[in-house]
Amino acid sequence: MSDEFYRIKRLPPYVIAEVNGMRAAARAAGEDIIDLGMGNPDLPPPDHVIEKLCEVARKPDAHGYSQSKGIPGLRRAQANYYARRFGVELDPENEVVVTMGSKEGLASLATAITAPGDVVLAPNPSYPIHTFGFIIAGATIRAVPTTPDEAYFESLERAMNFTVPRPSVLVVNYPSNPTAETVDLAFYERLVAWARENQVWIISDLAYSELYFDGKPTVSILQVKGAKDIAIEFTSLSKTYSMAGWRMGFAVGNRKLIAAMTRVKSYLDYGAFTPIQAAACAALNGPQDIVERNRELYHKRRDVLVESFGRAGWDIPPPPASMFAWAPLPPALAHLGSLEFSKQLLTHAKVAVAPGVGYGENGEGFVRIAMVENEQRLRQAARNVRKYLQSMGVNTPAKAG
């Protein structure tokens, strides 16, 4: 009997888990750790969403199996969201499927459309499921940059010309996790034209659709004419409505991809708990003031983070979107590498961040900072960071935070 399992052998150690384990141990020992590592919203959903959950949960017939593809009302609610937000018309029956968070949806789609040996183009650095969902399914990953410039399209052309077999899937994620980069509609228009010419499916992860700053709304790839011929897009209620633990997301777009994913899901799950799906309807169909409120909240936190950490001696570029800052290591400490720097920051500054190398080799030299603590705690983190930098011999401004 062998314990060399094929898929497990393809998974490297989860680097981020190492820092998470240290954080958990420190907290268990009673230390006050400012956790800027995991993108876990610190605020609750709107009251009317929680009330709908409780209302439906009290119904005797609400506790059986649900629908794997999502209840009809929720699929209609997501279609209506796309219509009012992006001007995109979707058929709720054939172009929308409910997922248990974006990660489950991406993994189910990878299982549905990937054969061992397929080549998938995925960004590096990237959120781990964008690569490992396909690696688990047996694919080979060819990395492309995250920066949406001319070099990006040059890398796509090289991949098509020099990869055997030719890549069949491209994963895109804007606003990017972890880099927070964004794109405009012209980028997607060019990308859709390229994908149609090269017969490549596009999988777009738009989980941070509503967390944009400086008055520059995000765009959907499905706004491009003909995009539904080759693209599927994932969204989530996790950050928009502070519902991360509810595990509620969606895939919309190309009918063939939706059908393949729905078929696989029908074998794997019975869908999310019906009261949660009903509450998700309330989120999408009800008052939307929380969307703007959360956007303003993260915008303010971004400004506080950039300002206070800058005064502490660590310059961080302001992210244009998402709930993360992609921060280069302080130059004087770049030699430590992102993992060791993260460990030291946790041990000596009591601040948890995510090492960039956990998002791919091109993430080395950076850490991801999640803006999931209030402004007071962010300023406290900056003061702690300043003390740590001083202890390491780094020149810092006179005062931070």
From TrEMBL:
Q: Which UniProt keywords apply?
A: Aminotransferase, Transferase
Fetch the InterPro entries from UniProt. Aminotransferase_I/II_large, LL-DAP_aminotransferase, NHTrfase_class1_PyrdxlP-BS, PyrdxlP-dep_Trfase, PyrdxlP-dep_Trfase_major, PyrdxlP-dep_Trfase_small
Q: Which cofactor does it need?
A: pyridoxal 5'-phosphate
Q: What class of enzyme is it?
A: transferase
Q: Which GO terms describe its molecular function?
A: L,L-diaminopimelate aminotransferase activity
Aminotransferase class I/classII large domain location is 32-383
UniProt EC number: 2.6.1.-
One Pfam family in the UniProt entry: Aminotran_1_2
- NCBIfam families, per the entry: PRK09148.1 (NF006604)
Q: Which family does it belong to?
A: Belongs to the class-I pyridoxal-phosphate-dependent aminotransferase family.
The identity of this protein, by name, is: Aminotransferase
State the organism of origin: Sphingomonas canadensis
